[in-house]
Design brief:
The chain is mainly alpha-helical. The protein contains ten helices and no strands. α1 runs antiparallel to α2 and α1 packs across α6. The longest helix is centred in the first third of the chain and has 24 residues. The protein starts with 8 loop residues before the first helix and ends with a helix.
Length: 189
Amino acid sequence: MSSPTPPRRSDATRAAILHAARERFALDGYDRATIRAIARDARIDPSMVMRYYGSKEGLFTAAVTVDLRLPEVAALPRDGVGAALVRHFLSLWEKDDVLTAVLRAGALSTAGAERTRGIFRDQLLPVARRICPDPEQAPTRAALVASQLLGLALTRYVLRIPSAVELSEGEVVAWLGPTVQRYLTAPSP
């Protein structure tokens, strides 16, 4: 019987880099985060970051793998999907600084914008396809839903506009849930 292979030092280094990158991107945003600062936080030489990830964009892509863990809409009442999505996104934003980093990077850089588009395209668009009355409108409807969810995140978690921050979860769901629901299920205007 062979003993398990001990973790390689490179695995620990990669993990330290990714942890430091997630924190630095969340704190500073994509543009202000530097390879040097991330390396310093990970207690390694900056050349190691470049060795493993090639570039800041490569590091950002690796560090901000985001699974939105969207609820299965088939298990929800059709008229409750909007409220469920808003509640779910609030829960994610409250718990995960990586989403704040993605939003900041999406607003400030081409790489961040592409990463944000990819997350919403790959994860929110399938939800819209399953629920909207006209599958050809799913991309437009998903984009409208994203506009509400990202707008909320921007005002509440990035800009921290007091009246947005002060809203309770119930108030946010009451205000945005019907709008998201309409975007997903209402007849085309």
